[in-house]
């Protein structure tokens, strides 16, 4: 069967797309730090351009913006330090007492239903003496002696920690030329259409990032105040960390709730801490999922709240953690594409008859 020029052109573009997707899939582990650096470059580029317009040399502008970004990221990670430094001594003291208390209260209650559960308090004490009682240097030595953690994983972590800032620096330095080169690869007859699509997608993604940042700030305040009302000593670091970590859907919330749960159990040594965490984090999850994210993020990018919830679930099912992380940005781009396809369809002969 003889293909028309239009059909051959369509097949050529489809082949290029399939090859591109296949290369990304095969090289995913290698591309991950470059992808992460690219996302950071896209987010930080407007700040660099503002400094450049104020006559700041580009190399200095890139350096200042990148340093500020990594200081902010490091500050968020360092919120865990006061939590760990305060909770480890409490963990050493309270864990055997909690295990003994569970044996005296929960075990007899479960035995009534034929469930025999008993915690070995002696083994727990031995574990604490061996691991939690050691100093930092001994713990680090034990950690590095592990073949799994001290091997490829640790090397990959250190490699990415060095590679991402370097790639980010060069991307920010060459961003205008990089965009110009990509624009030059687009066929001339399609450039106006592609430029309009990219401009609209850029505006929508900007709305997404601003909305997500607002959600993070509101949740940081909410969790900090909520935990403080329940008299948590570590309300501020745990609350701020949870609020900022929700940028990573599910994982950030889960890690923050785990830290709050540990802090509550160790501080109060009763069900009060567990109930307090359940109330604050349960209410916070409802507010985030059904009010803040749909309204502040979904409406800003023109997506129905139900579509936002469906996108998070669907992308998470298809691509796991990475899918959840990219669900709303990809959804925003698809909305722009969908609007253009709809406009083309309503103006086509197929629709008009």
Task: Describe this protein's structure.
Helix content is 86%, strand content 0%. It is mainly alpha-helical and 353 residues long. The chain has a domain at 192-353. Helix 8 (191-229) runs antiparallel to helix 9. The protein is elongated and about 80 Å long. The protein starts with a helix and ends with a helix. 19% of the residues are buried. Residues 146-150 have low confidence and may be disordered.
Specify Rg, calculated over alpha carbons.
Answer: 26 Å
**Number of helices, where a helix is a run of at least 4 consecutive DSSP H or I residues:** 13
Class computed from helices, strands and strand pairing: mainly alpha
Beta content: under 5%
Tell me, what's the shape?
A: elongated
Q: Could you list the spans in which at least 5 consecutive residues all have pLDDT below 50?
A: 146-150
What is the share of helical residues?
over 70%
* Secondary-structure element string: HHHHHHHHHHHHH
Q: How many angstroms does the end-to-end distance come to?
A: 28 Å
Mean pLDDT: 76
């Amino acid at each position: 069967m003889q293909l028309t020029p239009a059909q051959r052109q369509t097949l050529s573009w489809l082949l290029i797309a399939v090859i591109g997707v296949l290369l990304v899939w095969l090289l995913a582990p290698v591309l991950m730090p470059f992808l992460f650096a690219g996302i950071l470059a896209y987010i930080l580029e407007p700040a660099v351009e503002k400094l450049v317009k104020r006559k700041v040399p580009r190399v200095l502008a890139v350096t200042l913006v990148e340093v500020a970004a990594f200081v902010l990221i490091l500050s968020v990670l360092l919120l865990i330090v006061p939590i760990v430094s305060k909770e480890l001594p409490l963990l050493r003291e309270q864990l055997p007492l909690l295990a003994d208390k569970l044996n005296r209260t929960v075990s007899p209650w479960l035995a009534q239903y034929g469930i025999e559960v008993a915690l070995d308090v002696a083994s727990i004490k031995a574990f604490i003496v061996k691991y939690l009682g050691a100093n930092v240097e001994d713990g680090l030595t034990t950690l590095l002696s592990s073949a799994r953690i001290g091997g490829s994983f640790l090397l990959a972590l250190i490699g990415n920690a060095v590679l991402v800032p370097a790639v980010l620096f060069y991307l920010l330095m060459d961003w205008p030329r990089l965009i110009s080169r990509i624009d030059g690869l687009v066929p001339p007859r399609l450039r106006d259409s592609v430029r309009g699509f990219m401009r609209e997608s850029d505006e929508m993604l900007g709305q997404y990032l601003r909305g997500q940042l607002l959600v993070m700030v509101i949740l940081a305040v909410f969790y900090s105040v909520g935990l403080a009302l329940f008299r948590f000593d570590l309300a501020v670091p745990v609350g701020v960390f949870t609020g900022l970590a929700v940028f990573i859907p599910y994982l950030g919330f889960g890690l923050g709730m785990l830290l709050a749960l540990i802090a509550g159990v160790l501080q109060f040594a009763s069900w009060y801490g567990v109930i307090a965490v359940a109330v604050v984090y349960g209410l916070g999850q409802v507010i985030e999922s059904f009010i803040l994210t749909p309204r502040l993020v979904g409406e800003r990018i023109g997506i129905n709240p139900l579509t936002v919830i469906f996108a998070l679930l669907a992308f998470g099912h298809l691509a796991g953690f990475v899918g959840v992380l990219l669900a709303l940005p990809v959804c925003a781009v698809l909305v722009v594409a969908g609007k253009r396809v709809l406009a083309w369809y309503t103006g086509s002969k197929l629709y008009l008859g």
